[in-house]
Amino acid sequence: MTKKDALFAQDTYTSPVFSPSWLARACPSLLFYLPLLWIVYQASRKATRQMYDGAAWIASSETTVQWLEKVGCCVKASGMESFRTLQEPCVFVGNHMSTLETFVLPALIQPWKDVTFVVKRSLITYPFFGEVLRSREPVVVGRTNAREDLTAVLQGGTACLEAGRSVVVFPQSTRSTTFDPALFNTIGVKLAKRAGVPIVPLALKTDAWSNGHTLKDFGPIDTRRTIHFAFGAPLTVAGQGKEEHHVISQFITEHLAQWNAEQPHQ
User: What is the mean pLDDT of each run of 10 residues along the chain (266 residues)?
Assistant: First the structure.
């Protein structure tokens, strides 16, 4: 797959207008999760055979986006030129709202920059999906000891960046549909400073893929909620990084406020 052929080939993207089937309108969650399970199963088979490379990851991610669109979701993305013009790897620092971003961000980033995620250890133990995630060599944290997590991110993240691979960091302690800057730590800024690479701010609104009650990672799909991704201008960390951290928090806060204002009341 070439960059020109990528689903998100342009610097901005808005889903084409789809007319979902009556079944998709009635049962969007069912019509989305069934093919998603097949996507993950096929990906895990390739990963088990060590055949799940960057191109395969992009294909899985793009197919996931297409199924979201088929059931009636609208995806909007902007600011991709912020990282596409960078010659070096970078640290993407953003808010974390749902499972959706883990599935969709590879289609946005991987065609231009080899990338991986900082993920919690429990994700790599999931059946099938864990095999896929492990094949992408993520930076793994336990989310039980902040000091150990910081060490893991600084060491593992720096190794990735020195090898030319960008890293996505979600500094919130857990997924949330709201954004509280007080709970948004500086781990991404510290990683970028240590590795000497730029930060690309990332704001997202992905609550169309809701958090579930029984299974948090797989909640209802709400097609009324637009899916948003916005990338900000690269930042170079100076000093302790406090100003850069503030800029990232403001970028996320302002975009969420705008998107929430545009969202019809439900």
Answer: 80 91 91 96 96 96 96 97 95 95 96 94 87 93 82 94 97 86 93 97 96 76 96 94 95 96 74
3-state secondary structure at position 171: coil
d(CA 258, CA 155): 36
Structure tokens at 5: 């052929």
Q: Distance between CA 142 and CA 120 in Å, rounded?
A: 6
Cβ atoms 6, 76 nearer than 8 A: no
Please list, in sequence order, all residues whose beta carbon lies within 8 angstroms of the beta carbon of residue 253, skipping any fewer than 6 positions away. 179, 181
Helix axes 146-162, 187-195, angle to 10 degrees: 40
Q: Which residues fall within 8 angstroms of residue 198, CB to CB, at 6 or more apart? A: 86, 88, 90, 91, 192, 234, 235, 236
List the end-to-end C-alpha distance of the chain, in Å, as a whole number.
40
Q: What global pTM score does this model have? A: 0.94
